[in-house]
Amino acid sequence: MGRIAKDGRVPSANLTASPVGLPVRDVLEANSLTGARVLAGEAGLDRVVQRLNVMEVPDILPWVKPHELLLTTGYPLRNNPSELVDLVRELDERGLAALAVKLHRYLDELPAEVLAEADRRGFPIIEVAEAVGFDDILNEVLSALLHRQAAVLARSDEVHRALVSVVLEGGGLNDLAAELTRILGGPVIVTTPDGRVSARAGDQDGLENTGCFDSTGRFRVDDEPTGVRPHEGGFHTTVPVVAGRIDHGRIVAFSDAPLDAADVYSLERAATVAALAVTKQLAIDAVEGKYRADFLRDLLTGRIEDVPTAAAHARSLGWDVERPLVVVVAELDPVTVPTGSVPELRPVQERFATAWQSVVRWRDSKAPVVNFNQEVVVLLGLPSAGSNADAVERAVNELVRQVVGDGGGGRRSFSLGISRPALTPHELPRAYEQARKAVRIGRRLHGDGARASFDRLGVHRLLSLIPDTAELRGFVEEVLGELAADTPENADLRRTLAVLLETNCTVAEAARRLHFHYNTLRYRITKLEKLVGPFTDDAALRLDLALALRVLEIRGL
């Protein structure tokens, strides 16, 4: 269960950080408030005071602000004390911290219903000693508030300098997270914009039980807005990492109790430093990534003649290309990307490549993963010696599941192609072309989000080599005749024809698959032969019909 506040209330689903100020209970310790009594609303003594105001007019509401301690002699309400019930309600709804009243001058006592309303709302009403001047309270409490705010700023500045020093000394996000853990005392993670954990520090045990992560270990960015929020057994505070209007991710700090204003402010300063570290790392990665991508592109396109030397160079980059591999090509599906969002996301293709690199790294650290501008290419080691197509597809599907996660975070649909195994580096160019062809054909057959293996393309590989779609359409119309028309009845008849061809015109088997009565299927066969010819007796015609039905599966015809 979530934690319960001191007043017995369950914290709201989305809390903001405590503002910089003093709790009402600390304000009451001021010398000028010696002898003050809490008349009602004691449950709200942890409300934070940031400023003070004096009530001199009946219509004070337009002038009050949140987190104020409102002082009054009761003079504006001396003629109608019953209005105090409405006043308490309005002050509480406007976020005031407390109401301090000097009695026995214009009001001898507060009505019981006023005190009951204050107790119900946890809104403190304080009786101030008659001999105390408001100017003494104002001077002492405002001085304490200024000292508090100065201390928060000083601590935040100290934290900022410490974090900047980490970056200037060459530290990365893991070092920043470690420094934040030292400062805040709890575990810290840094995530990408879509929630993948890119750095962590502190004791991470039990974080998976907080409900903040999905089944793939990704932080639920879409369900976790910035600010302080409760979770099972504690709290976590999320701040965005933004630089140049680009969203670089989140910093999340976990704690047993809500972070106070000073710590949240420090965390926000840390996000600025983290953005600096991310930007620096992105610049380094861009240079290194281009070099790696250029090398791998040359290897995959057959431009490198000395393949053994290239394989040795790949080892220096941490890659192993001398083992059996399959080439996986993933392409984002074309969509209209909305513009004008604030903050903007990092370039989609760049984030897509980073996602693949992060996921593949955990499964196969020696597998090359590079971004070729319009496609991400992965050279994945076979799951085991002699792996068949099914085993390869299962391994790739698991990677896809982790890349996709549970949706959200700005992730886009993508299509993917898988090559046949390449047993030696010399076979990689052929495998690369197979994977690219699988992507193109898969998208034509199944549309966006297609997953296609070259081994399973069958005759579609040959059909894809025909660039003239008008010629393909003409072939379909010539072979199928009226059956080529796009109507529900024709679609049903084409389905019957396809099953008959798959069963070699075995009527009993086809009827079983289609759940038709034997005589119903015989009637359909007669109808089909009137439309397309005597296919049950003509093997050549059956071949043409099978090809025509395959052509119709290609989208865009």
Automatic annotation (TrEMBL):
Belongs to the CdaR family. Residues 493-551 form the PucR C-terminal helix-turn-helix domain. Residues 26-145 form the Purine catabolism PurC-like domain. Residues 302-441 form the CdaR GGDEF-like domain. PANTHER family: CARBOHYDRATE DIACID REGULATOR, DNA-BINDING TRANSCRIPTIONAL ACTIVATOR ADER. It comes from Cryptosporangium aurantiacum. Pfam families: GGDEF_2 (PF17853), HTH_30 (PF13556), PucR (PF07905). It comes from the Bacteria. This is Purine catabolism regulatory protein.
